[in-house]
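step=encode ok
step=design start
structure_in=
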């Protein structure tokens, strides 16, 4: 279809020649924005899954107590947890694991071993059960000095709401990018109609139908849309590959290594095809609407 003869020299129009550049820029921005939405969706699922079904007990160091006294408080916290209905397991996290978790934030040179780090107990809830978290927290504070309980549900809900807001903004940006592309296509198509108005009149006089004229514009728009779209898509995917490589150099405790899932790449690669289809439809609709208004 793209190689069919055209009776209109559309490729010579200044407004049309700039169309691939505009489409390429829009596809580049849409690819990056859509990648942000997909990435945030993955992070939301991962973090939400990691925080669901668990609570954390923290036991602060009191004065200069011995390790044996601290261990007894930890064991008592585990005992109270396991006596609570709806709790499946409780595990004391070793101090070296706690120090390893803090190392990326405090730096490798920080004297973590000398810090009065609290002891942490990871509590796993039984699936589909109701746990009296407030009651457990009150018992811990009453019976174990320096003990407290962190329920991740409130923090998780706020995190999910924040990430959802980012996704909504990203989707709105993609919609705005698409609307901008449609506006540019309409402007370029109308410009082409004005430039070739006399030729279109001649085509009508010799029997050409509106569908035939619209086909001339939509085929040219599709060709230019694919040209600019694939250029913008390649630029966007290369940018994402660079970001992925850079992120892989970060500490895994701070940022996930696998930013994108395998299925994300085909979705991102489909952006130029979708953009070219939008360009083609916009050109066709604009031409047919304008021709119907012509005498």
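sequence_out=
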């Amino acid at each position: 279809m793209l190689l069919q003869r055209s009776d209109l020299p559309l490729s010579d129009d200044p407004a049309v020649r700039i169309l691939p550049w505009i489409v390429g820029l829009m596809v580049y921005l849409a690819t990056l924005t859509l990648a942000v939405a997909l990435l945030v969706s993955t992070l939301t699922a991962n973090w939400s899954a990691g925080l669901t079904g668990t609570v954390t007990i923290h036991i602060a160091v009191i004065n200069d107590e011995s390790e044996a006294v601290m261990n007894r408080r930890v064991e008592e916290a585990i005992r109270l947890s396991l006596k609570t209905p709806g709790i499946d397991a409780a595990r004391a996290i070793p101090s070296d694991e706690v120090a390893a978790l803090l190392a990326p934030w405090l730096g490798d040179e920080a004297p973590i071993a000398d810090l009065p780090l609290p002891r942490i107990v990871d509590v796993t809830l039984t699936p589909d059960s109701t746990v009296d978290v407030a009651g457990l927290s009150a018992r811990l504070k009453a019976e174990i000095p320096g003990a407290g309980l962190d329920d991740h549900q409130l923090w998780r809900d706020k995190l999910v709401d924040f990430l959802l807001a980012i996704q909504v903004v990203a989707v709105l940006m993609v919609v705005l990018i698409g609307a901008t592309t449609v506006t540019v296509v309409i402007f370029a198509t109308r410009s082409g109609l004005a430039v070739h108005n006399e030729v279109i009149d001649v085509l009508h006089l010799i029997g050409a139908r509106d569908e035939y004229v619209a086909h001339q514009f939509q085929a040219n728009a599709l060709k230019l849309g694919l040209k600019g779209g694939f250029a913008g898509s390649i630029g966007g995917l290369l940018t994402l590959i660079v970001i992925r490589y850079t992120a892989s150099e970060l500490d895994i405790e701070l940022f996930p290594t696998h930013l994108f899932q395998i299925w994300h790449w085909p979705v991102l690669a489909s952006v130029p095809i979708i953009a070219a289809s939008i360009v083609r439809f916009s050109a066709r609709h604009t031409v047919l609407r304008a021709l119907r208004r012509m005498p």
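step=design ok
step=annotate ok -> Residues 10-49+157-293 form one domain.
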